[in-house]
Automatic annotation (TrEMBL):
Gene3D superfamilies: 3.30.70.360, Zn peptidases (3.40.630.10). GO terms for biological process: diaminopimelate biosynthetic process. Residues 210-306 form the Peptidase M20 dimerisation domain. GO terms for molecular function: metal ion binding; N-acetyldiaminopimelate deacetylase activity. SUPFAM superfamilies: Bacterial exopeptidase dimerisation domain, Zn-dependent exopeptidases. The keyword Metal-binding applies. Its cofactor is Mn(2+). This is Amidohydrolase. The Mn(2+) ion enhances activity. Pfam families: M20_dimer, Peptidase_M20. Keywords: Hydrolase, Manganese, Metal-binding. InterPro entries: Amidohydrolase, Bact_exopeptidase_dim_dom, Peptidase_M20, Peptidase_M20_dimer.
Length: 418
Protein backbone atom coordinates (compact mmCIF):
# COMPACT_ATOMS: atom_id res chain seq x y z
CA UNK A 1 0.00 0.00 0.00
CA UNK A 2 1.10 3.53 -0.74
CA UNK A 3 1.60 5.96 2.14
CA UNK A 4 -1.33 8.29 2.77
CA UNK A 5 0.80 11.22 1.64
CA UNK A 6 0.17 10.13 -1.97
CA UNK A 7 -3.62 10.35 -1.70
CA UNK A 8 -3.81 13.95 -2.92
CA UNK A 9 -1.79 13.06 -6.03
CA UNK A 10 -4.95 11.42 -7.44
CA UNK A 11 -7.04 14.59 -7.37
CA UNK A 12 -7.58 16.64 -10.54
CA UNK A 13 -6.15 19.80 -8.96
CA UNK A 14 -2.89 18.13 -7.94
CA UNK A 15 -1.39 18.35 -11.42
CA UNK A 16 -2.46 21.87 -12.30
CA UNK A 17 0.78 23.48 -11.15
CA UNK A 18 3.00 21.43 -13.46
CA UNK A 19 0.80 20.41 -16.41
CA UNK A 20 1.52 23.47 -18.56
CA UNK A 21 5.25 23.26 -17.84
CA UNK A 22 5.39 19.55 -18.65
CA UNK A 23 3.51 20.03 -21.92
CA UNK A 24 5.78 22.90 -22.93
CA UNK A 25 8.99 21.04 -22.07
CA UNK A 26 7.70 17.89 -23.76
CA UNK A 27 6.91 19.68 -27.00
CA UNK A 28 10.35 21.28 -27.00
CA UNK A 29 12.00 17.90 -26.44
CA UNK A 30 10.17 16.15 -29.31
CA UNK A 31 13.00 16.48 -31.90
CA UNK A 32 15.57 15.13 -29.44
CA UNK A 33 13.30 12.25 -28.45
CA UNK A 34 12.81 11.22 -32.09
CA UNK A 35 16.54 11.53 -32.79
CA UNK A 36 17.35 9.33 -29.80
CA UNK A 37 14.82 6.72 -30.91
CA UNK A 38 16.29 6.57 -34.41
CA UNK A 39 19.85 6.29 -33.10
CA UNK A 40 18.94 3.46 -30.75
CA UNK A 41 16.91 1.75 -33.47
CA UNK A 42 19.96 1.57 -35.73
CA UNK A 43 22.04 -0.36 -33.21
CA UNK A 44 19.82 -2.95 -31.51
CA UNK A 45 21.24 -5.62 -29.22
CA UNK A 46 19.60 -8.78 -27.94
CA UNK A 47 19.06 -9.63 -24.29
CA UNK A 48 22.24 -9.82 -22.24
CA UNK A 49 24.34 -8.12 -24.92
CA UNK A 50 23.28 -4.48 -24.51
CA UNK A 51 26.78 -3.07 -23.87
CA UNK A 52 26.69 -0.59 -26.76
CA UNK A 53 23.14 0.41 -25.89
CA UNK A 54 24.33 1.14 -22.36
CA UNK A 55 27.15 3.26 -23.81
CA UNK A 56 24.78 5.25 -26.03
CA UNK A 57 22.44 5.91 -23.12
CA UNK A 58 25.28 6.98 -20.85
CA UNK A 59 26.42 9.47 -23.49
CA UNK A 60 22.91 10.91 -23.57
CA UNK A 61 22.78 11.15 -19.78
CA UNK A 62 26.20 12.83 -19.74
CA UNK A 63 24.92 15.46 -22.18
CA UNK A 64 21.93 16.05 -19.92
CA UNK A 65 24.10 16.30 -16.81
CA UNK A 66 22.32 13.44 -15.06
CA UNK A 67 24.36 11.36 -12.57
CA UNK A 68 24.12 7.60 -13.01
CA UNK A 69 25.59 4.24 -12.08
CA UNK A 70 26.55 1.71 -14.75
CA UNK A 71 25.85 -1.90 -13.86
CA UNK A 72 27.66 -5.04 -14.95
CA UNK A 73 24.42 -6.44 -16.38
CA UNK A 74 24.36 -3.53 -18.91
CA UNK A 75 21.70 -1.69 -16.93
CA UNK A 76 21.82 1.88 -15.66
CA UNK A 77 20.45 3.53 -12.51
CA UNK A 78 20.26 7.33 -12.70
CA UNK A 79 19.00 9.97 -10.29
CA UNK A 80 17.13 13.26 -10.65
CA UNK A 81 17.08 15.23 -7.42
CA UNK A 82 14.10 17.46 -6.79
CA UNK A 83 14.89 20.99 -5.63
CA UNK A 84 11.50 22.04 -4.30
CA UNK A 85 11.50 23.14 -0.65
CA UNK A 86 11.41 20.13 1.63
CA UNK A 87 12.52 17.66 -1.05
CA UNK A 88 15.14 16.25 1.36
CA UNK A 89 15.08 15.86 5.11
CA UNK A 90 17.72 17.05 7.57
CA UNK A 91 19.78 13.91 6.98
CA UNK A 92 19.82 14.41 3.22
CA UNK A 93 17.34 11.64 2.44
CA UNK A 94 14.52 12.32 -0.05
CA UNK A 95 11.12 12.63 1.58
CA UNK A 96 9.71 10.60 -1.32
CA UNK A 97 11.31 8.58 -4.08
CA UNK A 98 9.57 7.25 -7.18
CA UNK A 99 11.06 5.35 -10.11
CA UNK A 100 10.63 5.25 -13.87
CA UNK A 101 11.72 2.18 -15.83
CA UNK A 102 12.52 1.57 -19.52
CA UNK A 103 13.74 -1.68 -21.05
CA UNK A 104 16.67 -1.82 -23.49
CA UNK A 105 16.89 -5.12 -25.36
CA UNK A 106 15.94 -5.97 -28.94
CA UNK A 107 14.87 -9.20 -30.66
CA UNK A 108 16.47 -11.74 -33.04
CA UNK A 109 14.32 -10.48 -35.93
CA UNK A 110 15.57 -9.46 -39.38
CA UNK A 111 14.12 -6.00 -40.04
CA UNK A 112 12.10 -5.45 -43.22
CA UNK A 113 10.72 -1.95 -42.64
CA UNK A 114 12.86 -0.18 -45.26
CA UNK A 115 13.32 2.76 -42.89
CA UNK A 116 16.34 5.01 -43.51
CA UNK A 117 17.40 4.35 -39.91
CA UNK A 118 16.78 0.59 -40.02
CA UNK A 119 18.88 -1.80 -37.97
CA UNK A 120 22.54 -2.00 -38.90
CA UNK A 121 22.99 -5.21 -36.89
CA UNK A 122 21.96 -8.11 -39.16
CA UNK A 123 19.22 -10.33 -37.80
CA UNK A 124 18.50 -8.05 -34.82
CA UNK A 125 15.73 -5.49 -34.59
CA UNK A 126 13.87 -3.34 -32.10
CA UNK A 127 10.67 -5.13 -33.08
CA UNK A 128 8.98 -4.61 -29.72
CA UNK A 129 9.49 -0.87 -29.33
CA UNK A 130 12.15 -0.81 -26.63
CA UNK A 131 14.00 1.83 -28.66
CA UNK A 132 10.92 4.00 -28.21
CA UNK A 133 10.85 3.21 -24.48
CA UNK A 134 14.43 4.40 -24.02
CA UNK A 135 13.77 7.51 -26.09
CA UNK A 136 10.61 8.33 -24.13
CA UNK A 137 12.57 7.85 -20.92
CA UNK A 138 15.25 10.26 -22.09
CA UNK A 139 12.46 12.70 -22.92
CA UNK A 140 11.02 12.33 -19.43
CA UNK A 141 14.49 12.88 -17.99
CA UNK A 142 14.80 16.16 -19.95
CA UNK A 143 11.43 17.34 -18.69
CA UNK A 144 12.07 16.39 -15.07
CA UNK A 145 15.55 17.89 -15.06
CA UNK A 146 14.09 21.22 -16.15
CA UNK A 147 11.16 20.89 -13.74
CA UNK A 148 13.29 19.90 -10.74
CA UNK A 149 12.12 22.86 -8.66
CA UNK A 150 8.63 21.32 -8.78
CA UNK A 151 9.76 17.97 -7.38
CA UNK A 152 9.46 17.40 -3.65
CA UNK A 153 11.60 14.29 -3.59
CA UNK A 154 13.75 12.19 -5.88
CA UNK A 155 13.32 10.31 -9.15
CA UNK A 156 15.16 7.08 -9.87
CA UNK A 157 15.64 6.30 -13.55
CA UNK A 158 16.00 2.60 -14.40
CA UNK A 159 17.27 1.46 -17.78
CA UNK A 160 16.80 -2.31 -17.71
CA UNK A 161 18.34 -5.02 -19.92
CA UNK A 162 17.03 -8.51 -20.76
CA UNK A 163 13.28 -7.96 -20.52
CA UNK A 164 12.65 -10.28 -23.46
CA UNK A 165 14.11 -13.24 -21.58
CA UNK A 166 12.36 -12.37 -18.31
CA UNK A 167 15.47 -11.91 -16.15
CA UNK A 168 16.33 -8.23 -16.43
CA UNK A 169 14.01 -6.88 -13.74
CA UNK A 170 15.28 -9.38 -11.19
CA UNK A 171 18.89 -8.42 -11.93
CA UNK A 172 18.05 -4.73 -11.50
CA UNK A 173 16.29 -5.41 -8.20
CA UNK A 174 19.33 -7.34 -7.04
CA UNK A 175 21.47 -4.33 -7.96
CA UNK A 176 19.38 -2.12 -5.67
CA UNK A 177 17.10 -0.42 -8.18
CA UNK A 178 14.15 -0.43 -5.78
CA UNK A 179 15.95 0.46 -2.57
CA UNK A 180 14.05 3.31 -0.92
CA UNK A 181 11.52 3.51 -3.79
CA UNK A 182 7.89 4.21 -2.84
CA UNK A 183 6.29 3.58 -6.24
CA UNK A 184 7.28 2.79 -9.82
CA UNK A 185 6.03 3.64 -13.33
CA UNK A 186 6.60 1.73 -16.55
CA UNK A 187 5.18 1.96 -20.04
CA UNK A 188 5.06 -0.01 -23.26
CA UNK A 189 4.43 1.51 -26.66
CA UNK A 190 1.57 -0.60 -27.97
CA UNK A 191 0.33 -1.41 -31.45
CA UNK A 192 -3.23 -2.29 -30.35
CA UNK A 193 -3.92 1.10 -28.74
CA UNK A 194 -4.72 4.12 -30.97
CA UNK A 195 -1.91 6.64 -31.40
CA UNK A 196 -2.19 9.62 -29.10
CA UNK A 197 -3.94 7.75 -26.30
CA UNK A 198 -2.67 5.96 -23.20
CA UNK A 199 -4.22 3.09 -21.22
CA UNK A 200 -3.46 2.91 -17.51
CA UNK A 201 -6.36 1.00 -15.94
CA UNK A 202 -6.08 -0.57 -12.48
CA UNK A 203 -5.93 -4.30 -11.85
CA UNK A 204 -4.48 -7.08 -14.00
CA UNK A 205 -3.20 -5.94 -17.39
CA UNK A 206 -0.83 -8.67 -18.60
CA UNK A 207 -0.58 -12.44 -18.32
CA UNK A 208 1.52 -14.97 -16.44
CA UNK A 209 4.45 -15.85 -18.70
CA UNK A 210 6.00 -19.33 -18.58
CA UNK A 211 8.21 -21.42 -20.87
CA UNK A 212 8.56 -25.04 -21.90
CA UNK A 213 10.86 -27.34 -23.85
CA UNK A 214 10.17 -30.82 -25.27
CA UNK A 215 13.01 -33.18 -26.23
CA UNK A 216 11.89 -36.10 -28.40
CA UNK A 217 13.95 -39.25 -28.92
CA UNK A 218 12.92 -41.52 -31.76
CA UNK A 219 15.00 -43.87 -33.92
CA UNK A 220 16.83 -42.62 -37.01
CA UNK A 221 16.60 -44.54 -40.27
CA UNK A 222 17.10 -44.13 -43.99
CA UNK A 223 14.58 -41.71 -45.43
CA UNK A 224 13.36 -44.38 -47.85
CA UNK A 225 12.73 -46.90 -45.04
CA UNK A 226 10.50 -45.10 -42.51
CA UNK A 227 9.22 -48.40 -41.12
CA UNK A 228 12.69 -49.11 -39.74
CA UNK A 229 12.70 -46.17 -37.34
CA UNK A 230 10.62 -43.72 -35.29
CA UNK A 231 10.42 -40.28 -36.88
CA UNK A 232 10.99 -37.64 -34.19
CA UNK A 233 9.86 -34.87 -36.57
CA UNK A 234 6.49 -36.54 -37.13
CA UNK A 235 6.09 -37.03 -33.37
CA UNK A 236 6.94 -33.37 -32.79
CA UNK A 237 4.48 -32.25 -35.45
CA UNK A 238 1.71 -34.19 -33.72
CA UNK A 239 2.64 -32.51 -30.45
CA UNK A 240 2.49 -29.03 -31.96
CA UNK A 241 -1.10 -29.64 -33.01
CA UNK A 242 -2.11 -31.55 -29.89
CA UNK A 243 -0.86 -28.88 -27.48
CA UNK A 244 -3.66 -26.66 -28.77
CA UNK A 245 -6.15 -29.09 -27.21
CA UNK A 246 -5.34 -27.34 -23.92
CA UNK A 247 -6.69 -24.12 -25.41
CA UNK A 248 -9.61 -25.40 -27.48
CA UNK A 249 -10.93 -28.37 -25.50
CA UNK A 250 -9.28 -28.67 -22.08
CA UNK A 251 -9.91 -25.17 -20.66
CA UNK A 252 -13.11 -23.15 -20.35
CA UNK A 253 -13.57 -20.63 -23.18
CA UNK A 254 -13.98 -18.01 -20.46
CA UNK A 255 -10.43 -18.71 -19.19
CA UNK A 256 -7.76 -16.90 -21.25
CA UNK A 257 -4.80 -19.10 -22.20
CA UNK A 258 -2.32 -19.25 -25.08
CA UNK A 259 0.14 -22.03 -25.96
CA UNK A 260 2.68 -21.17 -28.66
CA UNK A 261 5.51 -23.31 -30.05
CA UNK A 262 8.19 -20.84 -31.12
CA UNK A 263 10.97 -23.27 -32.12
CA UNK A 264 10.98 -26.69 -33.81
CA UNK A 265 14.33 -28.33 -34.59
CA UNK A 266 14.93 -31.82 -35.88
CA UNK A 267 16.96 -33.87 -38.31
CA UNK A 268 20.44 -33.65 -39.77
CA UNK A 269 20.04 -34.41 -43.47
CA UNK A 270 17.25 -34.57 -46.03
CA UNK A 271 17.56 -38.34 -46.56
CA UNK A 272 17.77 -39.34 -42.88
CA UNK A 273 14.66 -39.78 -40.80
CA UNK A 274 15.20 -37.73 -37.66
CA UNK A 275 16.03 -39.62 -34.50
CA UNK A 276 15.83 -36.52 -32.33
CA UNK A 277 13.86 -33.29 -32.32
CA UNK A 278 13.15 -30.54 -29.84
CA UNK A 279 10.54 -27.83 -29.40
CA UNK A 280 10.38 -24.74 -27.26
CA UNK A 281 7.46 -22.48 -26.52
CA UNK A 282 5.56 -20.29 -24.15
CA UNK A 283 2.34 -20.51 -22.14
CA UNK A 284 0.32 -17.44 -21.19
CA UNK A 285 -2.41 -17.66 -18.56
CA UNK A 286 -4.53 -15.07 -16.78
CA UNK A 287 -5.38 -16.88 -13.55
CA UNK A 288 -2.97 -18.31 -11.01
CA UNK A 289 -5.16 -21.37 -10.65
CA UNK A 290 -4.83 -22.37 -14.30
CA UNK A 291 -1.16 -21.45 -14.29
CA UNK A 292 -0.49 -24.01 -11.59
CA UNK A 293 -2.33 -26.73 -13.54
CA UNK A 294 -0.77 -26.15 -16.97
CA UNK A 295 2.54 -28.03 -16.53
CA UNK A 296 0.87 -31.32 -15.62
CA UNK A 297 -1.70 -30.97 -18.39
CA UNK A 298 0.91 -30.30 -21.07
CA UNK A 299 3.20 -33.06 -19.86
CA UNK A 300 0.29 -35.50 -19.98
CA UNK A 301 -0.40 -34.64 -23.64
CA UNK A 302 3.28 -34.88 -24.59
CA UNK A 303 3.90 -38.21 -22.86
CA UNK A 304 0.82 -39.87 -24.36
CA UNK A 305 1.73 -38.82 -27.91
CA UNK A 306 5.32 -39.98 -27.51
CA UNK A 307 4.12 -43.35 -26.19
CA UNK A 308 1.65 -43.77 -29.05
CA UNK A 309 4.44 -43.39 -31.62
CA UNK A 310 6.99 -45.49 -29.79
CA UNK A 311 9.17 -42.50 -28.93
CA UNK A 312 10.23 -40.98 -25.62
CA UNK A 313 9.88 -37.36 -24.61
CA UNK A 314 11.23 -35.14 -21.84
CA UNK A 315 9.04 -32.20 -20.91
CA UNK A 316 10.66 -29.27 -19.10
CA UNK A 317 8.60 -26.39 -17.70
CA UNK A 318 10.28 -23.12 -16.65
CA UNK A 319 8.24 -20.63 -14.61
CA UNK A 320 8.63 -17.06 -15.85
CA UNK A 321 7.03 -13.85 -14.65
CA UNK A 322 3.73 -13.51 -12.87
CA UNK A 323 0.86 -11.55 -14.34
CA UNK A 324 1.11 -7.77 -14.14
CA UNK A 325 -1.45 -5.90 -12.04
CA UNK A 326 -1.59 -2.13 -11.55
CA UNK A 327 -1.97 -0.60 -8.10
CA UNK A 328 -5.27 1.37 -8.05
CA UNK A 329 -3.76 4.55 -6.59
CA UNK A 330 -0.80 4.61 -8.98
CA UNK A 331 -3.13 3.87 -11.89
CA UNK A 332 -5.43 6.73 -10.98
CA UNK A 333 -2.50 9.11 -10.71
CA UNK A 334 -1.42 7.96 -14.18
CA UNK A 335 -4.94 8.49 -15.55
CA UNK A 336 -4.95 12.01 -14.17
CA UNK A 337 -1.49 12.58 -15.68
CA UNK A 338 -2.86 11.55 -19.08
CA UNK A 339 -5.74 14.01 -18.70
CA UNK A 340 -3.33 16.75 -17.58
CA UNK A 341 -1.12 16.35 -20.63
CA UNK A 342 -3.33 14.92 -23.40
CA UNK A 343 -6.85 15.83 -22.30
CA UNK A 344 -9.80 13.56 -21.58
CA UNK A 345 -9.59 12.12 -25.08
CA UNK A 346 -6.11 10.80 -24.29
CA UNK A 347 -7.41 8.10 -21.95
CA UNK A 348 -7.63 4.82 -23.86
CA UNK A 349 -10.01 1.97 -23.11
CA UNK A 350 -7.94 -1.22 -23.50
CA UNK A 351 -8.77 -4.62 -22.04
CA UNK A 352 -5.17 -5.77 -21.48
CA UNK A 353 -3.13 -8.48 -23.17
CA UNK A 354 -1.85 -12.04 -22.78
CA UNK A 355 1.61 -10.72 -23.49
CA UNK A 356 3.94 -10.79 -20.48
CA UNK A 357 6.29 -8.31 -18.85
CA UNK A 358 8.95 -8.71 -16.19
CA UNK A 359 7.90 -5.29 -14.88
CA UNK A 360 5.64 -7.48 -12.75
CA UNK A 361 8.71 -8.35 -10.67
CA UNK A 362 8.98 -4.73 -9.51
CA UNK A 363 5.29 -4.75 -8.62
CA UNK A 364 5.84 -7.69 -6.29
CA UNK A 365 7.92 -5.33 -4.12
CA UNK A 366 6.50 -1.82 -4.54
CA UNK A 367 3.17 -0.48 -5.85
CA UNK A 368 3.18 0.92 -9.36
CA UNK A 369 1.53 1.29 -12.72
CA UNK A 370 2.29 0.01 -16.20
CA UNK A 371 0.80 2.04 -19.05
CA UNK A 372 0.19 1.22 -22.71
CA UNK A 373 1.21 4.17 -24.90
CA UNK A 374 -0.81 3.88 -28.08
CA UNK A 375 1.01 3.94 -31.41
CA UNK A 376 -1.50 2.38 -33.81
CA UNK A 377 -1.73 4.62 -36.88
CA UNK A 378 -2.13 2.87 -40.26
CA UNK A 379 -1.45 6.15 -42.09
CA UNK A 380 2.23 5.96 -41.11
CA UNK A 381 2.51 2.17 -41.27
CA UNK A 382 2.30 1.77 -37.51
CA UNK A 383 -0.24 -1.06 -37.59
CA UNK A 384 1.97 -4.16 -37.41
CA UNK A 385 2.03 -6.16 -34.16
CA UNK A 386 4.89 -6.28 -31.71
CA UNK A 387 7.67 -8.73 -32.78
CA UNK A 388 6.87 -8.28 -36.50
CA UNK A 389 9.74 -7.69 -38.92
CA UNK A 390 7.66 -4.76 -40.24
CA UNK A 391 7.03 -3.22 -36.81
CA UNK A 392 7.36 0.53 -36.47
CA UNK A 393 5.84 3.31 -34.39
CA UNK A 394 4.15 6.65 -34.88
CA UNK A 395 6.93 8.92 -33.69
CA UNK A 396 4.48 11.72 -32.94
CA UNK A 397 3.41 9.84 -29.81
CA UNK A 398 6.88 9.63 -28.25
CA UNK A 399 6.87 13.06 -26.61
CA UNK A 400 3.37 12.34 -25.32
CA UNK A 401 4.67 9.22 -23.60
CA UNK A 402 7.45 11.29 -22.05
CA UNK A 403 5.01 13.89 -20.82
CA UNK A 404 2.69 11.36 -19.18
CA UNK A 405 5.60 9.73 -17.35
CA UNK A 406 6.97 13.08 -16.20
CA UNK A 407 3.57 14.33 -15.08
CA UNK A 408 3.00 11.10 -13.13
CA UNK A 409 6.23 11.86 -11.26
CA UNK A 410 5.23 15.46 -10.67
CA UNK A 411 1.91 14.36 -9.21
CA UNK A 412 3.49 11.68 -7.03
CA UNK A 413 6.06 14.17 -5.72
CA UNK A 414 3.61 17.05 -5.55
CA UNK A 415 4.16 17.58 -1.85
CA UNK A 416 0.44 17.67 -1.18
CA UNK A 417 -0.48 16.19 2.18
CA UNK A 418 -3.17 13.51 2.43
Amino acid sequence: MLPAVYAAAQTPQAGAATADLVRSLGAAAQPDIVAARRLLHRFPEVSGQEANTQKLLCEQLDELGIPYRKLDNNGIIATIAGTAPGAYDADGAPVRRVALRADMDALPVAEQTGLPFASENPGIMHACGHDAHMAMMLGAVRILRDAADSLTGEVRIIFQPAEEISIGALSMIEAGALEGVDAIYGAHIWSEVPAGTVSCAPGQRMANTDWFRIDIDGVSAHGSMPHKGVDAVVVGAEMVAALQILVSRDVSPFEPVVVTVGEFHGGQARNIMAGHAWLTGTVRTWSEGLRSEVPDRLEHIVSRIAHAFGATARFTFEPGNAGLANDPTCAEVARQAVIDTLGDQGVADYRGTLSGEDFSEYLRIVPGVFCFVGTRNPQVGADHPQHSCHYTVDEDVLAKGSMVAAQWVCRMLSGAKG
